[in-house]
Amino acid sequence: QGVADGPDFDDVPLRTGGLGLGDEEDDDGRSEEERERDAFIKSLEDEVMEFDRNWRLFGITPLRCATHLLQLPIMKILRDKDLVFHDILVKVRAMVNKYSKSVNAKEELNKLVHLMVVCYCVTRWWTDCDMMARVKRIYEADPSALNSVIESMEWDDDLKLDKKDVTLINKFLSLFQPIQKMSDQLGGEKYSS
Length: 193
Fold this sequence. Notes:
The chain has helices spanning 32-58, 66-78, 86-101, 103-113, 126-141, 145-152, 163-187. By secondary structure, the protein is mainly α.
């Protein structure tokens, strides 16, 4: 990989929520999803360090992709357990995982609001924005739809959304959607990196 090339993600497995992520824990109590996200963040950190060493060694002026530079700090922020949005992210991701595994739940939700939840990808921060935006849109179409499906599927009541959760989702979107939009513009492509 050349110095001016973008990151090499060939070694990083891209997996989306709803494919069994987070079901198994290791000895440290971390889920598979947390391990995968941590490994991806570590690869980004390593890439930044390697890039820094190479441009100094060869005297090349660094020209980095702005969207990739944004990805590392944003992903580190989103996994921070002290972040105000951490608990709602965990809750919505768990709910989306349940929905994505259940044909009956998807069908019932579609009958109620003619919408389906959007899954996330652990290695792309902006998919959390898409996921939260869809949950907000479903809630706006019918505030009880998600919770009534959760109830009819007999899932854990902790997955149900309350008004505080919806407020946090709105605040999350008001903070991260402008960053997503700017990342799209900086990347010069249709989607955020």
